[in-house]
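Async update (no meeting this week)

Hi team, since we skipped the sync, here's where things stand on the single-chain job. The sequence we agreed to prioritize is pasted below, unchanged from the tracker. I ran it this morning and attached the output directly underneath so nobody has to dig for it. Comments welcome in thread, and please keep replies under the output.
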Amino acid sequence: MTCGADLAALMKSPPPSAVVFDCDGTLMDTEPCADAARGAVFARRGRPYDDAARAALVGLALPQAGEVMSRLFGGNAPQLADELGAELLTAVAAGARPMPGAAELVTLLCAAGMPIAVASNGPRVLLDKSLTHGALSRWLPVTVSGDEVASPKPHPDCYLTACTALGVEPGRTLAVEDSPVGARAAHAAGMTVLGVGALTRGPHVHAHVPALDDAALQGWLLGR
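Output:
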């Protein structure tokens, strides 16, 4: 399978042995929450949170985001990361929702006996809050957070750890991602990468769907 193939080409391959989802922006609609949190941190410093700033921060783990913000407007990177993390927890608790088709796909895969997991760049406290808020936790006992691995995305550690926990080979596992940072991580892990949404087209993505409620995607994964 060459990178850049569409879903029809991917469907010519057998279904994967397992699926590992990203969380933020993939399973849970937390990007508006993240934008609000970043915007609050920027506003306190009189700086605009514009498209360039968003592009520099989307998909990053909190320590990486702190470093980026420190370069953009100064300040202590760990303190900025902590500030952003606190804003994110508040925003997620107030407004996070499952992405279209996410709950249905997860429950269908579980019912079919497909091993599934989550590999997130967010910290454990944020990952747990988000999945609980979206009523997805009971379907997803295997989760890996960005603060539980040596190197977060774009390094492959999160995905490799998730595959090990599921007992599956990365090469037979589908990664589902919404960000270029996450797609790079899954690709580096040797996985087939399915991009979801507007940001995940490019050299690290094998196929793409607009959303997880895609009927063809569900049929392929379930062997229908």
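Quick observations from my side:
The beta strands are 18-21, 28-29, 97-98, 116-119, 143-144, 173-177, 192-196, 207-209.
The chain has a mean pLDDT of 91.
Reply here if anything looks off.
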